[in-house]
Amino acid sequence: MKKYVYNIIMIYVILIWVGCTNETEETIRGCTNCNAINFDDDANEDDSSCIFINTNRLGDYAVIDSTMDWVFEWWYDEYNISIVRDSCSSIGIKINNYANGITTSLDNSICVSADIIGDSIFIPYQVVSDYEILETDGYFREDSIFFQIYYLTPNFGDPYIGYVEGKKIN
């Protein structure tokens, strides 16, 4: 009989212990998209309250650039760029096909990170595919984009500087 009572007590203790350790996580509602300006890192359930900025800046642009190379020769080129959100940044963007991929191969398209604050674009220093992308800036006006390109080539560090302007096509 003692063994029977002991077993019942042990089962009761185990059930109480398991019940206490199996607490469910508290639901915290909020914005769970890290690209929103009101992202809540503590939220574990999205409440559809996310606020996004710069959405009207995202898309494809038909641009023209004029670039001067290291021997002071100007080059002119027409191409498309794409602006998309950068991962987990409310002001961050990626500019795809920066400087027409810098190379002639479409497979080698250069993608640079930038920030949009209001109508301004800020492209910080970064190294992409061995090209040194130097700090530049630009701006948006209605459905148009304007920014500077400035980079150094991988092997010899030849400088290229230029200007890009274009219109949003979608």
Identify the notable features of this structure and list them briefly.
single chain, 170 residues, mainly beta, Lipocalin, two-stranded parallel ribbon, 12 strands, 12% helix
How would you explain this protein's 3D organization?
The chain has two domains: 2-46, no CATH class; 55-168, Lipocalin (Beta Barrel), CATH 2.40.128. The protein has one helix and twelve strands, in the order H-E-E-E-E-E-E-E-E-E-E-E-E. The chain has one helix spanning 2-21, and strands spanning 29-30, 45-46, 59-68, 74-85, 92-96, 111-117, 120-123, 126-128, 131-133, 136-141, 144-152, 159-168. The longest helix has 20 residues, at 2-21. The radius of gyration is 27 Å and the shape is elongated. The mean pLDDT is 86.
String of helices and strands = HEEEEEEEEEEEE
Mean pLDDT: 86
Shape designation: elongated
CATH-defined architecture of the largest domain: Beta Barrel
Separation of termini? 82 Å
Helix content: 10-25%
Report the top-level CATH class of the largest domain. Mainly Beta
CATH structural fold name of the largest domain: Lipocalin
How many domains, in number, for the residues?
A: 2
Structural class: mainly beta
